[in-house]
Each structure stands twice: as structure tokens, then as C-alpha cells.
Amino acid sequence: MPMLTSNRRRMLQASAATVLAGVTTRWARAAAPTKRLFTMSLRGGSIGVNTDQPEAIRLAARHGFEAVTPDPHALANASVDQRAEWIDQMKESGLVWGAAGLPVEFRRDEATFREQLNSLPDLAAAMQDAGVTRVGTYLMPCHDDLTYTQNMRQHAERLRQCVQVLGDHGQRFGMEYVGPKTLWTSKRYPFIHSMAETKDLIAQIDQPGVGFILDSWHWYTAGETVADITSLSNADVVACDLNDAPAGLAVDQQIDNQRMLPMATGVIDLKSFLQSLVAIGYDGPIRAEPFNRKLAAMENGPACAATAKAMTAAFDLIDG
Question: Is 154 exposed, middle or buried (0-12, 13-18, 19+ CB in 10 A)?
Fold first, then answer.
């Protein structure tokens, strides 16, 4: 009898665990985001549209974007009244800020870095006044002089100082790894060119509010998967870029400054990329960054229209 009682107890415990697991799984599925929270953001410089901040706001509104990239120097040079006017224009058009570029050159000599770091508090304060909360930069994946370890140390030390200033002004900081093999093998010492390595740098910086700029192009050229994206949370992702790749080239032959607008070729699995961002509840800006000569040769209006059309088609993969 004691043996039967023990067995029965184990059976009941196992049954309860199975039921609980089922309930937990159903709850998790119900809790997982099902619609996109991210915004379609205009970053003019990436599509050959070089204009000032107020014109960028007007172009974004005119062509159906949901966010626009802030220019730290423009915001700092503007008066309080000018900044307020720009923000009012954005509110009227239903626009929010995207992610600003880091206004510090940290890749060159120490003197240049120090000079620009000294100006960062004023720029960060202007961004804070305007309501900008996201700042990011890219990581050059190779170096002629610094070994991997030396470059890692320099990046961690310099970017930590930038992050501390940004954090004091309510801004998160994202880093974009650069994936193409044609670039990271182009100099003597390869450097960070994957998500896993960027996680190492984030750990070395060891500051709150530091995460990723994800790019479908670099995700593709780094040979990464949906599982890599879903290993992150919304808090880990500061901004995203959306691109397609030229057809007819092997992944290791892709060249970084020769990309395509989203949905142009279907080489990159943008549906899986975007669905993964939905799954983690990503709620920040997504920009097109094709560095495409044909697009850059267009006038500002047509370039913005073509970009918005391509991004809308990509978003329709998950919105439909």
C-alpha cells in the first residue's frame, strides 16, 4: 500500500505539472506581442536625402513616415523656441523621434575623441530637451593597427565615457555590428562583426542602457538566425535598419555599401527578421539604409517616396 500511495502521489504531481506547463505556455503565447510596435523612420542621409532638420520633418510627414531621425547639432544650435516649433510640427503630423547618431568620433586619435567628448554634454542636453531618448553608432569591423584585444579595450573605454554622458541625459545607446566578410577581412586585424561579439562589448562597457542597433543586412551577412534576435528583449534593441541584398552574390561576397531597398530582391528573409522584432516587443524606430546609388541620385521627394513604399511593403508582411 505505501508503494501504491507513493506512485499515486507521483502521478498526481506529474499530472499537475503538465497542466501547469500547458497553462503557462498558453499564457506566454497570449502575452507575446502580435502586432508591430516599431515605427517607420526617415533617416535621410542613408537614402541620399541631405537636408536640415525642419525639412526632414516635413518630408517624413509628407511621405507617411512615423518617425524622423534627430540631428544632435541642429537641435543644439537651435533656440528653445525653434526646438519647440519643430516638436509641435511633429506632433501635428503624428511623428516621433527616431535614433540620433552618436556625435563623437571615437574611432580615431585620442585628441579628436577628447575634443568631441567634451562637446557631448551640451549636445545630449539639447537632445534631452527635445525628447530624444535613443542614440547609436556602428562598429568598424577591422583595424590596420589595433589587435582585436586592443581594439576591444579602446572601444569599451571610450564608449563607456560616452554612455555615461548620454545616460545622465536619459538616452539609451545602441551599437551596430557590421557583418560582411568582404569588410572585416579588408584590414590586418578583424574586429567585432557579429551579435555574439557585440554582447561581449556590451559586457565590457558594463553600463545600463546599452544595447544593439540591429540591421537585416548585417544579420544576414553574419549568418545569424531568428533565434539570435529572439535571444534579445525590447530593452536590448535601441534601433533597427531594414535592407535587402543584391541578387546573384554569395553571402560572403556581399559588399557593405552596395545594398538594396527592402523587398527589392527577396535575398534577405525580411519577414522572419520583422516577425522576430514583433515577438520581442521591439518598440523603436526602423530605418532603411540601402546606400544605393540609384536611390541617392533621385530628388529628395521621390527618394523618400520610394523608401516609404518599400518599407510599407515590408511591414505589410507582418501587418497584413
Answer: middle
Kindly state whether residues 266 and 125 are assigned to the same domain. Answer: yes
Amino acid at 283: D
What angle do the packed helices 300-319 and 53-62 form, to 10 degrees? Answer: 50
Do residues 255 and 294 share a domain?
Answer: yes
- Number of domains into which the chain is organized: 2
- For the domain that residue 201 is a member of, what is the CATH number? 3.20.20.150
For 251, the grid coordinates are 553571402
Angle of helix 195-205 versus helix 148-168 axis, rounded to 10: 60
Strands, E assignment, 43-129:
67-68, 96-97, 100-101
Asked whether residue 4 falls in the same domain as residue 74, the answer is no
Q: C-alpha angle with apex 73: 211 to 213, nearest 5 degrees?
A: 20
Range of the domain at 4: 1-31
Given a contact cutoff of 8 angstroms between Cβ atoms, the answer to whether 240 and 218 are in contact is no
Q: pLDDT tens digit string along 183-234? A: 999 999 999 999 999 999 999 999 999 999 999 999 999 999 999 999 999 9
Residues forming beta bridges with residue 211, ordered by sequence position: 174
The pLDDT of 282-307, averaged and rounded, is 96
Residue 66, all three cell numbers: 512615423
Q: Which residue's entry shows cell 511623428?
A: 95
Q: 51 and 27, same structural domain? A: no
